[in-house]
Design brief:
Number of strands: 9
CATH superfamily: Metallo-dependent phosphatases
Strand content: 15-25%
CATH topology: Purple Acid Phosphatase, chain A, domain 2
Strand order of the largest sheet: 4-3-2-1-9
CATH class: Alpha Beta
Structural class: alpha/beta
Low-confidence stretches: none
Amino acid sequence: MAVFFTSDPHFGHANIIKYCNRPFASVEEMDSAIIDRWNARVAPGDTLYCLGDWCLWRGSRSIGEVAESYRARINCGTIHFIWGNHDKQGRRDERFQKQFQSLHDLLEIDVGGHFLVLCHYAMRVWNKSHHGAYHLYGHSHGSLPDDPTSRSFDCGVDAFQFAPVSLDEVADLMGRKAWRPVDHHRV
């Protein structure tokens, strides 16, 4: 069983193609490409953490119905979800919420010997950051410059060719950084 991270698929959101300069001619092409890339990397027995902004809701169907239609196309059996700024309707829809094993505003996990803080938004410091904890975020669609001295980065689809990043890849990327701990306790 492997662990993967991603953020900001924005399924069904046609304008995100223009806003983020995504290389797709239509929302259907975008949705299919993202789902295909997820399914190529993440097996049914794996765990995926999605850091927000699942899908856009329009028309007569409920947000839960829309979320369920995308979830049904994804092979991964276990998806934990961190709320994003575009998930407001999902917070009020039980059917939306049932698509995920757990729902969080911020999540701290210890997996594979690594402590990670997962949030939709980027932070400059986080719990245990001065001890080397990792921080993964989304929201910025790959537009924030990477800080080569910080153990954090944007794991969103726009930053990783529309595919999830594995825990091993996270550890490798973090290990290549010239990490300098900021110990706010000594200020």
